[in-house]
Amino acid sequence: MIHTEFASLTFKCKNHKCDNEFHAHIVEHKGGINDYGWWIVQCEKCSEIFDVYIGRDVNDSELQSGGQILDRFDKEVYSETEVKEAVNNLKTK
Description:
The protein is mainly beta and 93 residues long. The chain has one domain. It is 13% helix and 48% strand. It contains one helix and six strands; from the N terminus they run E-E-E-E-E-E-H. It has one helix at 80-91; strands at residues 3-12, 21-30, 37-43, 49-54, 62-65, 67-74. The chain has a three-stranded antiparallel sheet with strand order 1-2-5, with no helix packed on it. Strands 4-3-6 form a three-stranded antiparallel sheet, with helices on one face. The termini are far apart.
C-alpha cells in the first residue's frame, strides 16, 4: 500500500553573502516509487544558481518560496557530476 508523507525543508542560498532562505514542500511515497535527486534553483534575492539534493521525490516536491526551480535531476538517471556541469552551464548562459 502506498502512503504519501509530506515534510517541510528549509535551506539557505549557497552565496555566503546572501541571507535568503528557501522553503520547500517535500513529498515521499512510502511503499511507492520515489525519484530521489537534485534541483537546480535560482535565488530570488541574489540570482545565485546552485544545486540542492532533495532526499525525497524530486519531481513531486515543490519549492514554495525563496526562488525558482530551473531543473530537476533524478539520481538514477544523472550523476552528481552531471548535475554540477548543468549548474555551470546555466551560470555561463
